[in-house]
Amino acid sequence: MSAVWVDDEIIDKKKERKIELESQKLEKRLCRNVGQAIVDFNMIEEGDKVMVCVSGGKDSYAMLDILLKMQQRAPIHFDLIAVNLDQKQPGFPEHILPDYLKKLGVPFHIENQDTYSIVKRVIPEGKTMCSLCSRLRRGILYRVAEELGATKIALGHHRDDMLQTFFLNMFFGGRLKGMPPKLVSDSGKHIVIRPMAYVNEKDIVRWAAQQQFPIIPCTLCGSQQNLQRVQVGNMLREWQTKYPGRIENMFSALQNVVPSHLMDGSKFDFKGLKATGVADPEGDKAFDAEEFPSVSFASSMPSLQVVSL
Length: 309
Fold this sequence. Notes:
The chain is α/β, with parallel strands linked by helices. The protein has helices at 2-40, 58-73, 96-104, 115-122, 130-148, 159-173, 201-211, 228-242, 246-254; strands at 49-53, 79-86, 108-112, 152-154, 182-184, 191-193. A six-stranded mixed sheet has the order 3-2-1-4-6-5, with helices on both faces. The longest helix has 39 residues, at 2-40. The termini are far apart.
């Protein structure tokens, strides 16, 4: 029996070591992806005060966690302040985030605004709440950023969110428009950054489980299962399952735009185009790859039910 017990103990230790190594690899990948996005888009600069918007969901928890790690390792000095907007949703556990943030030792601010009642009163039952909720939340967070003296506002959107937004705009808005990693607010007063731009959602799910973040579910948009965003997300996941690597290729495409091969006259002067006699490597080549797998695009695209906004 003692030999069997020793063997079991060795196996358990090997499993623990494997789990530990996988966790370390995941942490390194998350830090590398976030660090690369910060560098590529100059998101955080010396002396910045970054307002980290924390909703209680896995994405914002992961963003705060990784930014705290980056703060310790970065060659520049910047400050972080976590901000949560308590929208007064019924049953919202008010103590969870303050307790968690106190335990972390990070400066934080809880803003109390009853946007829940406004959204429920204005939006008819069954209609999409996200647009109004987002506008209200954005306006409040911009005001709070100004009051706190924040120079940057960090949101927890990740790579999959950015792709979903691109396809939402294309399918339902008729525009090739995505979710940028860095932008200036409508008022021109604030810089908004998305440090998780290069992070895929699967890694966030794994990290949230490992770190045991105290997730707080959303009873507004999180409870709406027929959202166009949900449908597009399902479509992308189905594509990735059937054709691994497709998500990576599409995300790469967002960073490799060729205006001369689209149809927007405001981005490329088609009317004034003239022959130059100089060879152009792009030329009239529509496809960058000579061969494509013989796959029917239509068969790989699940049906989308349009939900009215």
